[in-house]
Amino acid sequence: xxxxxxxxxxxxxxxxxxxxxxxxxxxxxxxxxxxxxxxxxxxxxxxxxxxxxxxxxxxxxxxxxxxxxxxxxxxxxxxxxxxxxxxxxxxxxxxxxxxxxxxxxxxxxxxxxxxxxxxxxxxxxxxxxxxxxxxxxxxxxxxxxxxxxxxxxxxxxxxxxxxxxxxxxxxxxxxxxxxxxxxxxxxxxxxxxxxxxxxxxxxxxxxxxxxxxxxxxxxxxxxxxxxxxxxxxxxxxxxxxxxxxxxxxxxxxxxxxxxxxxxxxxxxxxxxxxxxxxxxxxxxxxxxxxxxxxxxxxxxxxxxxxxxxxxxxxxxxxxxxxxxxxxxxxxxxxxxxxxxxxxxxxxxxxx
Length: 351
Fold this sequence. Notes:
Blueprint: H1 7-43, H2 59-69, H3 80-96, E1 109-110, E2 113-114, H4 124-133, H5 135-145, H6 149-180, H7 185-190, E3 195-196, E4 200-201, H8 204-207, H9 209-222, H10 234-237, H11 247-272, H12 288-309, H13 315-343
Helix pairs in contact: 1-2, 1-11, 1-12, 3-5, 3-11, 5-6, 6-9, 6-13, 9-11, 9-13, 11-12
């Protein structure tokens, strides 16, 4: 804690930063849906939402009003406590993970407190992995609590998918941790400052191209996005674990999905794309937030582009990809990274 600030002031600043962050993430959810519908419309040679407000920018507000006043039902045989808890759990997990995401350089401070992240812990990436793994409980709980066989099947499929690809994602991230020699996210970003050979950014994507590819595949699968949106397969499960949900509770599942997209994009930006590093960052440290957001938006665009391009794969193909391709390659990437760090130790620890 900074010595020139009281504990009460520190708590108040943290609360304000948390409230601003939650508000920003809710806006990201609202306009993430607008952006996706507009882009998918263009990819499919149609307009997308364009009636409510200029360019359809008021459409998320109209959708929000509709969801709030939509009929809220609970299946007669449902476990009511678990039924209500499931959507709240997945949203809470998605929001909590952002507590340790740094959006800009720690050197930018307000009253002696870093402005662009809520908390910096020395095991930041490990904390994110631990928190996000709890999201699987919300999914399986939603499928089970509805007392519907189709919802339960969707929950089981989603849980198996999440567990399968969390292994690949975790191992892909371990390669970056070996190179960085730390679990602290701001330090991992700081070690990516500068250039190789005077022109190539020192981003980890150039040292870990396989790790980045495996992380991206796992991130797509973990967020239930096409072509890995098997838990919500309309033709097979009628939206799976969400089938018996309506109104605001149904919207909370979609809210968690879009916030998770921003989360995995933020993690990819921090670990592989240099975080807030970019031109003129030394002269204007506050500019780092802009570079961070640009990289995150680029990753989100790729998510949407893939949804409009690739068809949904079969469930057996999904599991084969996770266990027979992603996991072995992630183990191979980790082994090669460890050998490289041993042979050329100057690559490790940001050397």
